[in-house]
Write the structure tokens for this entry.
Amino acid sequence: MARKQRPQKELQSINYFIVEGCTEENYINLLKRLYKNNSKIKNCKGGNAKGVMIDALSILKEKKEIYSKFIVWFDNDRFNPKNPSESKLYNDLLKEKAEIYISEPCIEAWLLSHFETVQHCKNKECKSCEEKLKTYISNYEKNNCILLEKYINKNNICDAIKNYPELGKLVKGYFVKDYPLADTQK
């Protein structure tokens, strides 16, 4: 008697985040825990946008068949789109269908958006965003994942999506699938 074959399991899509530093990695890990997500993360250990884009292209070419989507996230404070080599890297990533998100001017502006609108951070130094963030997280230190877990939750993530829509697209697209419901449940 022939054995019945089990139906094949559908492959689960897994996204691959390539981020500039520890703060972005810690934030994505927080989202993964809050929203039960199994995405993969590569921390490029700080530096600059160019280094992140070089790493992203390398990873993308090596792992293109394994992951469903590649998401690249870096800060604008060290990105120069007028630089021909950076512009080429950016366009090469787009050609490879990677999604690119840029914190303006830095990750602290995104973190600040969990508490208020971030208009005052636009086109300013990261230090001013960090100082303003300290009014909400008095002991804020870059790269401290415990502080993120203590101060950031599902409710203020929904606030951040409203307060900073450009980066909110990253969170809505990959973690907060029920966003329209989420902001009415406060």
User: Anything to note?
Assistant: Strands lie at 15-19, 40-43, 69-75, 99-103. The first helix runs from residue 22 to 35.
